[in-house]
UniProtKB/TrEMBL annotation:
Gene3D superfamilies: Spore Coat Polysaccharide Biosynthesis Protein SpsA, Chain A
UniProt cross-references to InterPro entries, sorted A to Z: G1P_cyt_trans-like, NTP_transferase_dom, Nucleotide-diphossugar_trans
Official protein name in the record: Glucose-1-phosphate cytidylyltransferase
Keyword Protein transport: no
One GO MF term attached to the UniProt entry: glucose-1-phosphate cytidylyltransferase activity
Keywords: Nucleotidyltransferase, Transferase
Residue ranges annotated for the Nucleotidyl transferase domain, each copy included: 2-230
Organism: Kribbella steppae
SUPFAM superfamilies registered for this protein in UniProt: Nucleotide-diphospho-sugar transferases
Pfam families cross-referenced by the UniProt entry: NTP_transferase (PF00483)
């Protein structure tokens, strides 16, 4: 399946000083978070990517045009550096289409603008370029493709970094609860979309805000609950947390590494079944 990645936003909450790099190009370790997202999909055999570019698009193009395999792969050097033999490769099997989809364009319109590159596909994957997970994408795809739904999204518990405040008409607080303790799910991206999505997605509209409510009313939108690892990189704090995981060697999203594959096998044994028709839930999109 082709993978559409939205990587054209400004990422204002990640701005620091004169830094002008687009958010998906902010690094975790030696590679941009966008690379980590793409490597995740490649692990499941999805190696054809369509990048929806906008702000900082030239930085994305330049990075891949000058890609250095030796940064993240072992290699043998001989003849004083004149000969390099790679022992592994990241992107040799990848096909990447770079599409300028505008600066102030909604995600839905970005998707519409790359539709010509999806015309032969009955279904495809889509995601933000700055959120990581260890979700079993192979099982998710199999589930969606054997169902009558048009789209699915990964539903994850809200981040535990804020609390919900309960108070009465006198403004006296009656309770505080962590958001993680509420029976609420949020949109975690990692969409699986069938081509019928374009029947409900109109010009200049948003995918989540406009098209998804229409699908929901038609009962053609499904949430895939995931209790495993999921983390966005919207702020400098979140980037720092992901960097710490990377430095410690605990990279749950890096399913392509030997250690992560072992962790994933353990996680999948405990993973909940995908929801049936009688499984109610609340998803904040």
């Amino acid at each position: 399946m082709k993978v559409v990645i939205f990587c054209g936003g400004f990422g204002l909450r990640m701005r620091s000083g004169v830094d002008s790099a687009p958010k998906p190009m902010m690094t975790i370790g030696d590679r941009p978070v966008l690379w980590h997202v793409m490597r995740y999909y490649a692990h499941f055999g999805h190696t054809e990517f369509i990048l929806c570019l906008g702000f900082g698009g030239s930085a994305v193009k330049e990075y891949f045009l000058r890609y250095e395999e030796t940064v993240s792969n072992d290699f043998v050097m001989s003849k004083g550096g004149q000969r390099i033999q790679l022992l592994d490769s990241d992107i040799s099997e990848w096909k990447i289409t770079f599409v300028d989809t505008g600066i102030d364009t909604s995600i839905g319109e970005r998707l519409r603008r790359v539709r010509p590159y999806l015309e032969d596909d009955d279904a495809f994957l889509a995601n933000y370029g700055d959120v990581l997970t260890d979700a079993p994408m192979d099982k998710i795809v199999d589930h969606v493709m054997t169902s009558d739904i048009t789209a699915s999204l990964l539903a994850v518990p809200p981040q535990a970094s804020f609390h919900v405040v309960e108070f009465g008409t006198d403004a006296r607080i009656t309770g505080l609860r962590s958001a993680a303790d509420l029976n609420v799910w949020i949109n975690g991206g990692y969409f699986v979309l069938k081509k019928e999505i374009f029947d409900v997605l109109h010009e200049d509209e948003d995918l989540v805000g406009d098209a998804f409510p229409r699908l929901s009313a038609m009962r053609r939108l499904e949430a895939i609950p995931h209790h495993g690892f999921w983390a966005p990189m919207d702020t400098l704090k979140e980037r720092s947390q992901l960097e710490e995981l990377y430095r410690s060697g605990k990279k749950p999203w890096a399913l392509w590494s030997h250690e992560a594959r072992q962790q994933r096998a353990q996680v999948l044994e405990k993973a909940p079944d995908l929801p049936g028709d009688d499984a109610p839930m609340v998803v904040a999109i």
